[in-house]
Amino acid sequence: MSNEKIVLPSDDKRWRLVNATMRRHGYSPDALIETLHTVQEAFGFLDSTSLHFVAKSLGVPLSRVYGVATFYNFFTMKPQGDHTCVVCLGTACYIKGAPDLIASIQQEMGIKPGETTADKKVSLLVARCLGACGLAPAVVLDGEVAGKIGPAEVIEKLRKWE
Amino acid sequence: MFIEEIHKLAEQEKEAQSAYQHHVYVCTGTACLSAHSDQIQDALNQEVKSRGLEKVCKITGGGCRGLCAAGPMVSVEPDNILYQAVEAADAPEIIQGLSDKPVERLLCNTDSSFFTRQSKIVLNNSGDIDPERIEDYLAVGGYEGLIMALNELTPPQVVEMITKSGLRGRGGAGYPTGLKWGTVAKAIGSPKYVICNGDEGDPGAFMDRSVMEANPHAIIEGMAIAAYAVGANQGYLYVRAEYPLAVKRLQMAIKQATKHNLLGDNIAGTTFSFKLDIRLGAGAFVCGEETALIASIEGKRGNPRPRPPYPAESGLWGKPTLINNVETITNVPSIINKGAEWFASIGTEKSKGTKVFALTGRITHTGLIEVPMGISLREIIYDIGGGIPDGRVFKAVQTGGPSGGCIPEAHLDMPVDYESLAKVGSIMGSGGMIVMDDTSCMVDVAKYFMEFCKSESCGKCVPCRVGTSQMYRILDSITRGEATLDDLALLEELCDMVANTSLCGLGQAAPNPVKSTLKFFRDEYMAHIVDKRCPAGVCKMTHAEVVR
Lengths: 162, 548
Description:
The complex is a heterodimer of chains A (about 160) and B (about 550). Chain A has about 160 residues and is of the alpha+beta class. Chain A folds into two domains: about 15-70; about 85-160, Glutaredoxin (3-Layer(aba) Sandwich). Chain A has helices at about 15-25, 30-45, 50-60, 60-70, 90-95, 100-110, 150-160; strands at about 85-90, 120-125, 140, 145. Chain A has a four-stranded mixed sheet with strand order 2-1-3-4, covered by helices on one side. In chain A, a hairpin with a 2-residue loop joins strand 3 (about 140) and strand 4 (about 145). Chain A is elongated, with a radius of gyration of 19 Å. The model of chain A has no long low-confidence stretch (mean pLDDT about 90). With about 550 residues, chain B is α/β, with parallel strands linked by helices. A five-stranded mixed sheet of chain B has the order 10-9-13-11-12. Chain B has a four-stranded mixed sheet with strand order 2-1-3-4, covered by helices on one side. In chain B, a hairpin with a 5-residue loop joins strand 11 and strand 12 (about 405-410). In chain B, helix 10 (about 205-215) runs parallel beside helix 12 and helix 18 (about 440-455) packs antiparallel against helix 19 (about 460-480). Chain B is globular, with a radius of gyration of 24 Å. In chain B, about 55% of the residues are buried. The interface between A and B is large, with 40 and 52 residues.
């Protein structure tokens, strides 16, 4: 790709960040995962436009880009709601009541893990393990870890978002 | 920077630190940070400033102290005082206590067996140094191992030393580290690569995260020594993207080390050059498998491939590659500094040194511990861990995550080493140790791990992709009270099939949780199948009525 000029999909400044990551790695196909990380960091999720752009810029087949984007749990192709609630499902959290947390959130918000409420306010996600096992069961509310938490407390915090 | 300058810097830092009468460390590990230890640090700084004690007392954000259950932790040196469950509002009292009596109500007993029964190599400096300053690491003798290796030892001598120490891989399988290094060193092909595996994927494990957050320079030093020993000039640190704090501190540490010429070209004025880059994982358990990890660094899907050829001969971009786990690498500088004999004197005949465990679940002292190999599980759970809370009864301890097994009461006196754990159907694993009491249903636990393996299976080989799904289906029907004894027989058959025919470690070890629970807790399976009843009261039976 070295001689071809990279055309950004739009004027959005965030594309420059994406391009900077690719440039730093010399537009090498190896940089695919690093680039997708930058896209997700900048835009919050991966969409068709970004996948096409990355595929073309790195000279990687779109199928491989899509394969990588869907293989790894960290990448998401759905936009998130205004608030995110991540419930840890690590072993320590699991035996200390994480399934109950999910069940009560599900009942309260009417969404399953991986879904966003109809008003795009709250997304419910699950994590494999946050590595905060000393705080089990743990949830992450908008990036803030809340540990040793019960269903009632979680619901109370979620209601404050509504 | 030459060696003399580095030594001078270390001396200067030591002097600067000894000028303070008191040194207050605030734990800034993930557990304590989420309890707002950063605000405590700010409050303490504020307090010191308002009292004009800046020249007397230094506040430092340190790494993990281990006792996460009692966080946030604050320690005062050299007075050897440890405070627990501190809040920002306690800052004035703590600072007042420096010249007065310590704050009684916050004291944490450091003579308790949680602290005294541990012996620390990997976590040695954790909590006592500021992970964001290279000077702190230099002041405690950091990078001495690297400098010594580069100046006094030849690469084969370094390999020899690691071999003699008896260090084995801490990622789980326990492959002799010296043997691995020797193979890469002898492999034909260039360039060679060194990879450190920080993709801690086991649920219920956070040892590597803690090391990366609390002592990032030790990992860099260990990797540089490894690179020197095997003849590599480029290294990659593969870290989970889910550990943003670890990534930030490692990036910072790499920058500082490069600036001080402890990474980069002609390290410390020698002919050895080593560059280190971070690669972010993206949440795939299978990437802990070395060939899958290599694929991921190459920007591909994390699919494993058959071995041989082993990465030692054909790894990253087809070149000889050394892959070691974070904990393994962190042991290296100490071995070079203190000698192979010293390291080999700790532990058992076949398992040397110490092991870090994340002690969690139904246990009083959850947290991070480091114990000598050969200690018994009972000592870990009852002496260090403080036993089971709420007057409940111990049922099992799970080691090795989704690749390990559940160990019952009857085997608690067994020593913790690679061979003993394997003998009872578990593995050492990376260090997750989850304690369960009588409120946990063992069939449900087996189902939990199978669900994990099923969704983390990369899908490349059939036994793992289809086998784990079918095993999960049977386990699910058992927990719903819908299974028959024929299903149980099929489950056992699948255990053998999946273990023996899967391509990589994920599939080969996936049946372990089922096999070990079947071996030690068969009565619970029978209660679900025959009596349609869950003894622990966890599983909601759809066929609640006993059908006879």
